[in-house]
Task: structure prediction
Amino acid sequence: MEKTWLVIHALVFSCVCAPAPIQSLEERCDRILRNMEASLTARDRVGIQDFVLLDAYTSESAFLDNLRKRFHENLIYTYIGTLLVSVNPYKELDIYSKKQMDTYMGVNFFELPPHIYALADNVFRTMQSEYSNHFILISGESGAGKTEASKKILQFYAVSCPRTRLLNNVRDRLLLSNPVLEAFGNAKTLKNNNSSRFGKYMDIQFDHQGGAVGGHILSYLLEKSRVVHQNHGERNFHIFYQLVEGGEDELLRWLGLERNCKNYRYLVQGSCAKVSSINDKSDWRTVRKALSVIDFSESETEQLFGIIASVLHLGNLEFAADAQGYATLNNNQQLHWVSKLLGIPNKVLQTGLTHRKIEAKTEEVLSPFSVDHAVYARDALAKAIYGRTFNWLVSKINESLANMDSSRKTVIGLLDIYGFEVFNVNSFEQFCINYCNEKLQQLFIQLTLKSEQEEYEMEGIEWEPVPYFNNKIICDLVEEKFKGIISFLDEECLRPGDATDLTFLQKMEEKIAGHPHFVTHKLADQKMRKTLERGDFRLLHYAGEVTYCVVGFLDKNNDLLYRNGKEVMQQSKNAIIKHCFPADEPDSKKRPETVVTQFKNSLVGLTEILTSKEPWYVRCIKPNEAKQPGQFDDVLVRHQVKYLGLMEHLRVRRAGFAYRRKYELFLQRYKALCPDTWPNWKGTAAEGVRCLIKHLGYKPDEYKMGRTKIFIRHPRTLFATEDAFQVCKHKLATSIQAKYKGYRVKEEFLKQREAATRIENCWRGLMAKRERERRAWAVKVIKKFIKGFMTRNQPACVDNSEYLAYVRQSYLTRLNKHLPKTVLQKDAWLTPPPIMKEASWLLQKIYVRYMVRKYIRGITPQRKLQLQLKLQTSSMFKGKKENYPISVCRPFVDTRITLEDINTKILQMIHHEHIKYSVPVVKYDRNGFRPRFRQLIFTQEAAYLVEETKIKQRIDYTSLRGVSVSSLSDNFLILHVTCDDSKQKGDLVLQCEHLFEALTKLSVIADKQNCIKVAQDSVRFDIQPGREGFIDFKSGQESMVYRAKNGHLMVESTRAKSR
Ligand SMILES: Nc1ncnc2c1ncn2[C@@H]1O[C@H](COP(=O)(O)OP(=O)(O)O)[C@@H](O)[C@H]1O
Ligand SMILES: [Mg+2]
Result:
């Protein structure tokens, strides 16, 4: 049972937390259980960390026991649900390190031991996920640890928020505004060595990414009277001591101050200028540094300290009485410093401090002060200067924290206001402070106990009401119009006549006698009267009885500064004072609102600010009055537990429903979990929720349906729903993301397509334009070409010049590509157009010459010789003998018979004549025409017909008459010789394979070119002198040589085929 409770309880927190990283429900429950079990074993020692788990949850003693146990274990934090109870340890605990902050960052509330960081983190994450505004109300009596708690929260945000250079800047300012405000607004009191003497509400603004981007501070009613007066054991505001103790020598000299607090009247009235726990020197350094970070210029800082110093000098001003008893200023040294530091002429200041202006009928006259009056006016001036400078300081800090970006911000407000306080003598300030606490308590009651219970009633939920003390009665006693203490006080302040503090007391006694929370000496019964002075009145506050002494109430409420004083200040050259006492300030004849009314109104404003945000609470408890660590004063703590309403809060928490939401909101958040309600529900929200929870399987005892809201009893139910939602959310997010991505991609695609089409169009247009231009150009060119063509034969003119140039160029280009490769390709010359005829002819000539030259240069001497021989042959036979063409391509050789093949005998015989050429021949007998193989040898001198070893015939070239060949394709040659002598042999009839070669050689060697004759049909020859023979030539089917019937040698040859 206990265990189940633990889990349930643990889950309570998660429902108010922002969703944690996804884990399965079992996993989380398991982890929680393990954590809780661990804490269970330690429970006897350290108590439980959440009062909701307390068995005897209605027992104050059990409550106290748990608090004490934990306190002694240095566990100063305990939860009541999401409310944090904090007990001041009065000693440094190692629980505020960076490591601790990291531990608490982003972790679910219930998963770690209670801590102020857990609360801060939870508020932050809720703000982030719900995009809503929040405030943390830190309450408790003076010295309970409120200011410390607010600093811890601020420090946590400073570390946990996302960082950028800009944000760091804001963060530093937010952090450093604290020591500055504390220096000027905090003081040592009997209750607290660092008691806030002003109320502070600070907004921290976050952008949508959770970065701290700005801040704003509202300050409430500074206890100005402290500037001029301190009770025994108390101090003035820290800054005075810091300046005197820590101020640099040069600065002090410039300010005319001495380094001794005892020298200043305003610093010694409490007789405790030095406090061991306060290090004014180091605090001074912190403040100096902070001022520079939050945009205070050097001159502003100087002026600020000038003001602080001038207040101290003012305090030391001594008035003496002159003969008439009027105040005079003897102490000119102090006056001199005030005059210098505030930049007000000495004389003006002096008059201002010793006189006041009185309006006579038509003019203003100066009336001198009595000494007492002068002291009073001096103190009033000191208070006014300090009070207004403090307000200037706050507005200056606000300027430096201001965020200029107009985008929407979410806000976490931190309210650290002076705590309920009771001194031996309580004055106007305590009255205001305690009234303020009364109001905040009322707000707390309203937001928690009252509203919660009223809600059940309104929604028609069965509910057993938890009784609680509603402090409305006290608030009304103080503030009700016409019937409240404030009204009476104001009335007394404003009415004409001799109103005094005592008349104020009498008025109250008259009007509110019998009120259960109000008593005075006169109204009290015998017993109580002993505890009351005559000038006292006592209020039974929610937090206890406080006896107020009426002395000074009217004065402080009026807060009068003589008009004269104001006018003097308006002449100041000090920029801050100038700003604080503007020349156009409403005429002092018109009464400003009294202090208490201003304060009341500012509290109304504060309540409005707070009620528009979601509340979170830190309730601070003071364990003892002695500010001692380890001391737990049961009575004191029990009293605080009681008046802070913690027991009632716990009872409501335990009995109530963990969660409620308007049907619309619940449906809106979870509708995705049921197919019937997703994406839109058509009916009423309540029906939708009914359908949804039916689908989710809620059991009847797990929830209640109110009139406008669903109430869920156990957090686990909601937790499971939230978990399912988290899972579902991711799926939804994925599908939305996919859709969106698709949409974006499609959009992008369409854009690209459109762009492509546009580019295409442009490109096409461009191409078409180019094409058109090209065609137009082509048409022009063609036209010109045609015209040129048509006029090509006319003399060069505009019309044909281009055409002709083209013709010329194209002919030359073509010609270049088709030039003949050899000299012999004479016909290969490209036919020129008419206009190029001459040029072509010239070119051809040049080219042929060029080729010839090239050819000639390329041939060897042997080849040249050969060609010369061939030329010779050509001149002899070309066109004359039929088989000549066949011979052209057959190269000539030096000889057809080498010397080795000639018989040596023969060689011996003719060698001296130099053998030039030899060739085998067939010799036909002159008689009978028998063929015989012979060698024909040409020497330098003669031709020899040789048969082996015998020279058959020698023909001296001189006796060679001629040579005959036929015009046909046979190889016959007839050498005609001169026959002078009948012994001599006749002409030689030979057949030679190399006819042309042999004859050419012969013609050259014997120089017989002209002797060679080409006969047509028949050759006559001499068989022997005087006896002739004939050889007939004809063409036939076959080559044949035979003796014809007519006795002629018939040579038939086939027709030579052309090459
Ligand atoms: N969490 C804490 N840890 C250590 N000391 C603390 C803590 N809270 C308060 N104190 C001590 O108590 C003193 C009074 O606390 P403070 O916050 O100024 O009280 P309050 O603002 O409620 O009047 C502090 O100066 C400090 O010495
Ligand atoms: Mg404080």
User: Anything to note?
Assistant: Confidence is low (pLDDT under 50) at residues 1-25, 36-41. The pocket of magnesium ion (ligand 2) is lined by residues 146-147, 195-196, 416 (CB under 6 Å). The first strand starts at residue 77 and ends at 80. The chain is about 50% helix and 15% strand.
